[in-house]
């Protein structure tokens, strides 16, 4: 990055979108600071035809204007650098976060159930903790997938929506 230069304030265009974020109390505080110790931090501008466009430093620019300055210290950056600075980080998706928490809770619950079943010594519990062995039937060797059915008398697997409803009925957090 280049060294800060002095740019004429009247040649710097402030986009309307940036101007909406202006807070007068911040401008006043910065103006006092600039009066006492000068402008310490340069603003960022990019070139656009015969003028400059403000990228960063709205309050510093407005403070210099309020003090009657004709020029402001600024760094000239490329349009590409300006685009990268202007892109806000994507906002967190609350629905995705909620689903991730639910998935973690479901996995923890399943693991706790497996451990509880293993500690009770039920015959099916140890099988649930062991990895499944590869089937050597003719269907498995030929690559045809054979649908697996739950054993007779075994409870069907609980879906996530069933688990959520159960948690809501029992007053549990999910």
Quick structural summary:
This protein is of the alpha/beta class. The chain is 49% helix and 14% strand.
Calculate Rg over CA atoms.
Answer: 32 Å
Estimated structural class: alpha/beta
The unreliable regions are 133-140
Note the gap between the termini. 49 Å
| Number of continuous helical runs | 8
Tags for this entry?
single chain, 174 residues, alpha/beta, 5-stranded mixed beta sheet, 8 helices, 5 strands, 14% strand
Q: What order do the helices and strands come in, and which of them pair?
A:
Layout: E1 5-8, E2 12-13, H1 16-19, H2 24-37, E3 43-48, E4 51-56, H3 58-66, E5 71-77, H4 79-86, H5 94-120, H6 123-129, H7 138-142, H8 160-170
Parallel strand pairs: 2-4, 3-5
Antiparallel strand pairs: 1-5, 3-4
Structure description:
It is a single chain. This protein has 174 residues and is an alpha/beta fold. 49% of the residues lie in helices and 14% in strands. The chain is built from eight helices and five strands, in the order ββααββαβααααα. The protein has helices spanning 16-19, 24-37, 58-66, 79-86, 94-120, 123-129, 138-142, 160-170; strands at residues 5-8, 12-13, 43-48, 51-56, 71-77. A five-stranded mixed sheet has the order 1-5-3-4-2. Helix 2 crosses helix 3 and helix 5 (94-120) packs across helix 6. The longest helix has 27 residues, at 94-120. The two termini are 49 Å apart.
């Amino acid at each position: 990055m280049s060294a800060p230069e002095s740019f004429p304030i009247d040649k710097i265009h402030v986009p309307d979108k940036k101007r909406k974020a202006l807070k007068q109390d911040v401008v006043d505080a910065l103006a006092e600071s600039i009066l006492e110790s000068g402008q310490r931090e340069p603003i960022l501008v990019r070139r656009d035809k015969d003028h400059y466009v403000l990228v960063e430093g709205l309050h510093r620019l407005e403070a210099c204007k309020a003090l009657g300055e004709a020029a402001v210290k600024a760094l000239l950056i490329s349009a590409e650098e300006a685009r990268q600075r202007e892109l806000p980080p994507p906002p967190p998706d609350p629905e995705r976060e909620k689903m991730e928490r639910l998935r973690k809770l479901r996995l923890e619950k399943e693991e706790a159930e497996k451990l509880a079943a293993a500690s009770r010594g039920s015959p099916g519990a140890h099988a649930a903790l062991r990895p499944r062995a590869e089937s050597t039937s003719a269907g498995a060797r030929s690559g045809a997938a054979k649908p697996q059915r739950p054993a007779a008398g075994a409870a069907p697997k609980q879906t996530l929506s069933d688990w959520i409803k159960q948690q809501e009925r029992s007053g549990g957090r999910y």
